[in-house]
Design brief:
single chain; 159 residues; mainly alpha; transmembrane helix; DUF4175 domain-containing protein; membrane; transmembrane
């Protein structure tokens, strides 16, 4: 039961996580998208390695996280070519539609696009979608880790 406690280190980690996410969503810049994408990728690589040595949580984290990461960012699952604007995420997921609505709401607060600024506006929109998918990747990974740990505990208590 001791591992479920909210320690100061975990609380600081949560604050850092949400700080990076909210700053990235507010900014919508390419640099913030690169940062969140890279951190998500590194967390999934760590989980894949830790799954071998650290138990069920990391195994579930890696499987669920990589599954959503590949489906969300995989170019082979998107819409047919030339049917819609190029995006970095899979538009066939329900979460993509929700994230586009959120990005559209946040983009209304940006200065209005005109001329060359419309390209910047579209790029901020796409970056916010990508950051949102990175957040969902981590959330699905955590849910997968908790589910995996729960299944492992129930299996050991039965046996």
């Amino acid at each position: 039961m001791r591992e479920n406690r909210l320690t100061i280190a975990r609380l600081l980690g949560l604050i850092l996580f949400f700080g990076v996410i909210f700053a990235g969503l507010r900014s919508g810049s390419n640099d913030w998208f690169k940062l969140t994408y890279s951190l998500t990728f590194l967390a999934l690589v760590y989980a894949a390695i830790a799954a071998r040595y650290r138990g069920a949580f990391w195994y579930g984290f890696a499987v669920a996280g990589w599954a959503y990461f590949v489906v969300g960012f995989g170019p082979w699952i998107g819409s047919p070519p030339l049917t819609e604007p190029l995006r970095a995420v899979n538009r066939n997921l329900v979460s993509s539609v929700v994230l586009e609505i959120v990005s559209g709401t946040m983009s209304r607060h940006d200065s209005s696009p005109s001329g060359s600024r419309s390209m910047l506006f579209a790029m901020h929109w796409a970056n916010r979608d990508g950051i949102g998918h990175c957040v969902l990747t981590v959330l699905f990974a955590i849910a997968g880790g908790l589910g995996s740990r729960s299944l492992a505990r129930s299996r050991t208590s039965e046996g």
